[in-house]
Amino acid sequence: MTVITNHMPTAELQALDAAHHMHPFTANGELSQKGARIITRADGVHLTDSEGHQILDAMAGLWCVNIGYGRGELAEVAARQMRELPYYNTFFQTTHVPAIALAAKIAELAPGDLNNVFFAGSGSEANDTNIRMVRHYWALKGKPSKSVIISRKNAYHGSSVGSGSLGGMSGMHAQGGMPIPDIHHINQPNWWAEGGDMPPEDFGLQRARELEEAILELGEDRVAAFIAEPVQGAGGVIVPPDSYWPEIQRICDKYEILLIADEVICGFGRTGNWFGSETLNIRPDIMTIAKGLSSGYAPIGGSIVSDEVASVIAGDEFNHGYTYSGHPVAAAVALENLRILEEENILGHVRDVAAPYLKQKWEALTDHPLVGEARIVGMMGSIALTPNKEARAAFASDAGTVGYICRERCFANNLVMRHVGDRMIISPPLVITPEQIDVLIERATKSLDECYAELKAQDLLRSA
Ligand code: PXG
């Protein structure tokens, strides 16, 4: 196969990138010394870089390319839509066919009475919508004091000022004046790192009951909503103990608290159902969606809103919206993506083939001396690296030192497997085959072996 690399040498492109391109979540000074890896094309589950390396993308881009790369149908639909109606807005009492059709399709797929869609350009924007919508909802119901949104530490809900405030990433809150007022964070259900001597199920209950404690402390008349990812993604694929979500649901039902499920990663097949809320048995009032909605082929996000909440919001002008809310090209692409997910029974492939196979191989990684726990739900998994499994010990080095070494080994072995602190995470395209999963595991194991050798050589196998 002829591999098309680039019209310019890698070094020249890297120099231009370093000179002009500010990367997100990156120490750009450091990167410009090193040079960014340049991805030139992709097909199926594989990326090609400017040096011609074929890389297995076990992160599906940034958790989003659910149907895999290279689906020409989406390109066709985008081109057709651009010719027909490249842009029109959905303000001022207008609409267009792609937005209508996509909203109707999402309403059909979403569970319960989640029948109403407010479009955004991304997950961050959608969560900003949610902040304003839930507060406005309570104001319209005559309870304007219900403005506090409870979220969790180490949650990720986006990077705008609002959504970044909802998120519980301390590194983000430390920069740029976040969080905004009336956001409250409780602890996460991360048993491996924080469960101490408790059995996981007891720990799950204890962490869920922090929600109740927070509601009672703040006052029920102050709390508007609780927001959480069914399974925390960017926080390190933290799968909660089974006891956690039923207790959260009970608490939200007991008090007058709206439940927002952030489905940006879990949605559109990632957990084996259309929504993570179905897999984890959650009944949200609002869902945040993005990423897998278009498999990342076009930027689009949104909020799926219950009939109850939508009917209250409909009683007033909601002074909120984005130029690209329901963008026709993005909406048409998303609709085609949903067609492919549905008609090719990709969720069936996840449930019956890919997820069971991956689970078996993934959990076997705990045989490796570096791997403490392995957790996986559908097609999102994590392993905790540790110097001492029995003690569930953290490394003596700064969190992320070991994870970074492992990630560098993965990159060198043509595998995109990320690290969050000292956890390694995967979220491959849903269409990955068992043969490709074998390659993934083979490269991951080789990388773990090399990482282990490097830790030994550098005397980094010490416990905190
Ligand atoms: N909610 C969740 C659960 C997410 O994972 C967002 C909201 C925000 O979506 P946008 O489209 O505004 O990025 C996300 C995004 C990482 C990483 O390092 C994860 C995300 C974004 C960037 C980096 O894993 N998730």
Automatic annotation (TrEMBL):
The record ties this protein, via CDD domains, to: OAT_like
Keywords noted in UniProt:
Aminotransferase, Pyridoxal phosphate, Transferase
Q: Which cofactor does it need?
A: pyridoxal 5'-phosphate
Keyword Magnesium applies: no
Q: Name one GO molecular function term.
A: transaminase activity
| Protein name, per record | Aspartate aminotransferase family protein
| Family the entry assigns | Belongs to the class-III pyridoxal-phosphate-dependent aminotransferase family.
